[in-house]
Amino acid sequence: MKTIAALITCFNRKEKTILCLTNLFKQPLLNNFELDVFLTDDGCTDGTAEAVGKTFPQVHIIKGDGNLFWNRGMYIAWQAAIKEKDYDFYLWLNDDTYLKPTAIKQLLLSSNECLNKSVIIGSTSAIGNDKEITYGGRTKAKGLLTPNGHLQPCELINGNIVLIPRYVYQQVGTNDPYFLHAIGDNDYGYRVIEAGLKNMVAPEILGECDLHEQPDTWRDSSKPLRVRWKALRKPTGIQPEQFFVYEYRHYGLFIATFHYITTNLHAICPWIWKLKKNEEKYFKS
């Protein structure tokens, strides 16, 4: 019997988490596959853990303190799974991502096509709109890839739907808990490539998840500096120090330092960029 550990982290999205799990447990698995679910409840106050425990008592719930956010919450769930058993596959799944009816089956078939030695990324579309791809795999040249019926290599990965075979885990390890919220999935994708392995986007759209629009408060010149500075460094913000480490690892010291300086400068003096954009518009007119 082969085994899959689904890893999820959640914070105060009870209805979405329940729907995510409902779609997950409806998945028809290939023969001889067994699914376990590890859910980090990062200090939910809306009754998520209680609702999950009542509806899906088979789910392993790990308690957080409200300060884990996405990447560290996923790390905690992964650590719990590792302690449980040596799984054949690990599935990253966002709690606001709703799997298509045969998503896991398609992930496993794609993984088998890659000899279970590559990360398989499932693309998502906007809810009710398959024409708008929201998350998945990206390349530097093409950006976010649209599934085209074939496996496609990519560099950057979004952590909404990601299947990681045991072989990849043994070579690369878990996501890095240094990163708090974002960046951890992109960092993992690069670590996979640097280990000589591949990230492959599955041939079809495998789930639905609406795009999370992030307000650019940190570079909004109408906001006071203290507000911009706080927005820049909040857990779900840019996090310049963590982004520096990420870029230093994968792009080198020069690019990391350049972006660290310009990001902070952008927050301090956002009008400089506004003037630059106005100049560009003027010279193009």
UniProtKB/TrEMBL annotation:
Domain Glycosyltransferase 2-like: 7-113
Molecular function terms, GO-annotated: transferase activity
InterPro entries: Glyco_trans_2-like, Glycosyltransf_2, Nucleotide-diphossugar_trans
One matching Pfam family: Glycos_transf_2
Source taxon at top rank: Bacteria
Keywords: Transferase
Coiled-coil segments on the chain, per record: none
UniProt keyword Transferase, yes or no: yes
PANTHER family associated with the record: GLYCOSYLTRANSFERASE (PTHR43685), SLR2126 PROTEIN (PTHR43685:SF3)
Name of the protein in question: Glycosyltransferase family 2 protein
Naturally occurring in which organism (per UniProt): Bacteroides stercoris
